Predict the 3D structure of the following.
Amino acid sequence: MEEDTLPSQQEITQTSSAALSKTGWKSKLPLISVGFSLLIIVGIISFLIGKSLSQPNTSPVSTISQLSLTSTPFPTPTTQIPIPTLTTDPNANWKTYRNEKYGFSFNYPQNWKMVDIEGLDEMEAISLTNISKEDHTINVIVWRVTGFGYCYNYGETKKIVVGGKDAEMADGVGGSQMCDEPERFINRGNTYVLIPIDDTDTNFPRNQIHISYDYPLNEKSLAKSNLNQILSTFKFFDPTNNWKTYFDSDKLKISFKYPPDWSVGFETHIGKASPVLSSPCDYEKGQRCATLQIFTETFERGRKLEDYFHFDFNGKWPDQIIERKKLSVGGEEALAIEYFQGNYFYGSSENERGRVLIMVKIVRNQTVYTITFSEEGKDRNQIKTSADWQNKAIFNQIISTFKFLD
């Protein structure tokens, strides 16, 4: 009986190898074809994707976006048109009044006309009139006043601030019995504003900007609105900014500023040349002649500054002291005395005598500096009180610019 024998592993391997050898490459054709086809398909897809990415986007949305950008080109710098800035400033395009003498300015509407007030040439006086409402007028005057107008009955005085300065305001109703023609002011209103302009002036009445607004009483609200807008534009500045400068680094060793329309001369005092400043003197225009003189002398030890003021209190026409006060000049303590010089004659008769002087003395480095100031009118007529001086504020301004150069 024959025994069935199982083929060995070696025989199986040899049989498989022989079988594959017999079948050869033909048996692999289907697989090769499938792989080749896949390569072709992948290549075509890659080509299409690359082509799509290399072309510009021509979708409808992109086209609309491009059209919207190119339809509003930006202007080039050479053709740029400035766009006006909108403003809500009610004072835009207003006119400007500027007072160089007293150092203030304000704006007023285009439809208001400004003129000088006749007969007040000796003062800084202007009048503003509303062209479309000629019964609205504003007078602005710089002078020494003690109160408000006489033709109105005024209510309570209110404290206000104008351009950073303390001021007073009052509203009045026309027809005061103190007025020469009260009937003219019936149904009229008035608002007064007083602004002191020289904080160093201790005299009373003080030099002030005097603003008076006349209007129909039934248009008070409009007038107050107009006035408040004008007051809101007030500015104060240093009037000495555009002044000339006197400079002496050799003898007096001082410098100071003075108005451009003033002149400088020299007089001999105690054997030395002393500068003398003079204001314009056109009497026909109401101007008064102001004179400021500076001289020096040696300070002697053991004496007081007051000893260098020479007054005659016992003569036939004695001097009279009006005011004495301390102040600072060029950083040094000074003493200023305003007095009436009784034995000064400006004419041939006894009635043509006397004048008011301000004398300031300073001691520095064993030298006494003296500054005198006075003012006279036509025919050398003297002003008997400094409250009536036109140039008191200018004198104070000149003093404020003093500098010692040693």
Summary: The first strand starts at residue 95 and ends at 99.
